[in-house]
Amino acid sequence: MMVINPHPFPNRIRFSLPLLNRSITTRGGGGGKSSCSAFNCRSVSSLISFTWDDVVQASQPDYAPNDSSDLSGFFENIKYCNRGSSEIKSEFIPLVIEDQIVGYIHNGFFDDYLRRFKDVFVFVPSDSRFGTNVTLNKTLSTPEERTRVVGRVIKSLAEEEKELIPGIRNELYPVKPSFGSPPYFSLERAAAPYFGIKAYGVQMNGFVERDGKKFLWIGKRSPMKQTFPGMLDNLVAGGLPHGMSCDANLIKECEEEAGIPLSLSNQ
């Protein structure tokens, strides 16, 4: 549940942009004693004036930020988050299912936690197409079997070391090479980052007009949330679980996160 606050949306908008602290905490693999990158958020103390014209300009393909009043700092942090393709990709092993790469597992997480489950995960030291990779045992031939067996591994790891995979919520994310592809299996949502799978979600912003002025509705996350407690958020947002359409998920999240009734969200 989020607390929703209306914020004025005049001709000039003032943002307090969150930036990623670039210090990295390494703990060996994906969490717990494994290696992963943890980013701490800090807020910019000064507010930045930013007009709708600036938004349109920033969306253009040839946009080249050249002063401190634009979103260059934000884009730099996006670039930093996406650095894995060239700088740290060697630290990860492709997860290959049915000749498709569906994720990337950190070397440390695999060695420390997954390698021992030899009846589930198979380490392939060399492959003509993918090089070194990890796949699932060929006896696990259906999505249902893979989901069940991998789910047992995740549950075992979570019980063995409670801080390794926090926030187990018994919600499944589909594991597939692209958005429109059929899933090869489904994975506990909290474990998705440890397997480097593609995850999808829905987000919605809300506007309201009062006395000729437009207001942007901004949510504040509950302090009890597992991730980013107490921080500002979209009006409605949520991860896209297995077997649910974007429309259905958005309607569900409207009720859960913002108390928007079905009679309104259906519109």
Automatic annotation (TrEMBL):
<dbReference type="InterPro" id="IPR031804">
    <property type="entry name" value="DUF4743"/>
</dbReference>
<feature type="domain" description="DUF4743">
    <location>
        <begin position="74"/>
        <end position="199"/>
    </location>
</feature>
<dbReference type="InterPro" id="IPR015797">
    <property type="entry name" value="NUDIX_hydrolase-like_dom_sf"/>
</dbReference>
<protein>
    <submittedName>
        <fullName>Thiamine PYROPHOSPHOKINASE</fullName>
    </submittedName>
</protein>
<dbReference type="Pfam" id="PF15916">
    <property type="entry name" value="DUF4743"/>
</dbReference>
<dbReference type="GO" id="GO:0044715">
    <property type="term" value="F:8-oxo-dGDP phosphatase activity"/>
</dbReference>
